[in-house]
Amino acid sequence: MKKILLTTLGLATGLGAFAQLPVSTTPENKNTILEEFTGIHCTYCPDGHKRADQMMAANPGDVFVINIHTGSYANPNAGEPDFRTSFGTAIAGQSGLTGYPAGTINRHLFSGMQQGSGTAMSRGDWSTASGQNISQSSYVNVACEGTLDVNTRLLTVDVEAYFTGVGAPGSMNINVAVTQNGLEGPQTGGASFYPAMIQPNGNYQHNKMLRHLMTGQWGDVITTTSMGTLVQKQYTWTLPADINGVPLELGELKIIAFIVEGQQEIITGDDGPITYTGLNFSNNARLKTVTSYDVVCGSTVTPTVNIQNFGSATMTAATISYDVNGGTPQIFNWTGSLASLAQEEVVLNAISFTDIGNNTINVTITDVNSGPDGDMADNSGTKTNVTNTNSTATGTAYNLIVLQDRYGSEITWDLIDDATGNPVPGGTGGPYADLGSNGTLANNHSITLSNTGCYTFNIYDAYGDGINAGYGAGNVTFENTGGTQVFFNNGQYGGDDREPFELTSITGVDEVITENSISIYPNPTNDVATISFNLTESTSVTMEVYNTMGSLVFSNGTKTMNSGSQKIVFDGTELPNGIYFVNLTVGDNLITKKVSLLK
Length: 599
Known about the structure:
This protein is mainly beta. It has four domains: 2-277, Immunoglobulins (Immunoglobulin-like, Sandwich), CATH 2.60.40; 285-386, Immunoglobulin-like (Sandwich); 397-503, Immunoglobulin-like (Sandwich); 510-597, Immunoglobulin-like, CATH 2.60.40.2550. The chain is built from five helices and 43 strands. The strands form twelve sheets. Strands 1-13-7-6-18 form a five-stranded mixed beta sheet, with no helix packed on it. Strands 8, 11, 12, 16 and 17 form a five-stranded antiparallel beta sheet that branches. Strands 20-28-27-23-24 form a five-stranded mixed beta sheet, with no helix packed on it. A hairpin with a 4-residue loop joins strand 39 and strand 40 (552-561). The longest helix is centred in the first third of the chain and has 14 residues, at 45-58. It is elongated.
């Protein structure tokens, strides 16, 4: 980080003209800087996010929010994003917070509103404290603006502060915070307390998140603060690709400058625009991502793409061509309005395909604003490993077993017939009763389905931590009354999860193996079980055994077996007691059976 003191008195020298500067020299009231302490595992933090957004909407240009992920609620679990910074612990530490979410208004002590003895307040007091703050006069005004070179990733921020009165004795500091919007990730309580931030994929959208302080932990010292003083400074930061593995999206960044007495009392602050340079083409679209559900039903998939305007002109139209497995392309004509570096998730129309096992979606943006794209090198993308799910289960009678955790009152589910978009008869359930302590309880539901068709099972958790997060290892099993499993869900998700499946005839299986020819003996077993079956022709056979958490615990590899009677031995000597699922893959077909270990 580079910082340059340009001048402290009088007019600046050596500076070009500022687009949003110079700073006002007319006395003004204070602006609010809400530093909100939050975390992805904090149940009520989404309510804090909503209240902060409401404060900004009610006081445009007077309230600015910095969300700081810190404390135990911000600690990520395995596989979760780490939104913390190196600055958050110290800022939260001096606030004296005693619970989450907490926030400070200009780091000022509002008597009677504090959580403890410090400046931190609970979310119900933020608006009142902010109203008091913005009614007070400020002895200093501040303004800022930034320039970001998209090629070098160099962010340059110019800051001006003008003292309309006499500053406080002792040191004063300029602070420049960089925040980011549009970050997706988990959030406990998001669906309950700020459902507007829940994205179609189930993630929560985090906004106003602190990513960096360009002026260091406590700011850059101002040495002259007498009335009539104009302070001008410039700071630079070369943006890394990510912080803690979380990408820095150039088009989602915001800058906020604020003036602090020492490191505690914020006098006022303001945000500023960022101008982008290095955009070499007027019309230039980027295809950032191609996504879809990994498992689809009925050989029809609906892709979602993220497109970004990487040109200097506003993007208002684009033609998107896409196919599956190189088949006949389909065209989607997008229209909208994207400023430079802005991006948008676009749901394309459904496209049918011929299933080849692991399928690939190919997408290309062919033109922008009804003309050629300036740089076609970044216009294409793919999504691989898209599979079509076909169940080998037959019949019309099925069992749904929802093994709840302790907090059954948070669990609801529905089973949707994709052909109608409505729940099947008896296809909704929950909430359930809470248990007295951590543990599980099986809730059994009988459901009747057509023998063939596409369905989607959805399960929801109001708290946002699934049903297998340490309060009992909950899960969901759906099987026919013969015990053949259609799907298994290990219960490890956030606010919701889905299981699409297709019930089809099993003529392909009958040609090679019949489900009734498979037997497991002894079952239950205390150590070893033999899986016996009959093949009508020579084919490849793989046996894999999974526990109720969905983890592979045993496999015999893939072998070619001759027609006739065959046997495979499952050795569970080293495995704990419990229910296990034997997946027998015969050629291209899968049959699942249950086996119990009781020692």
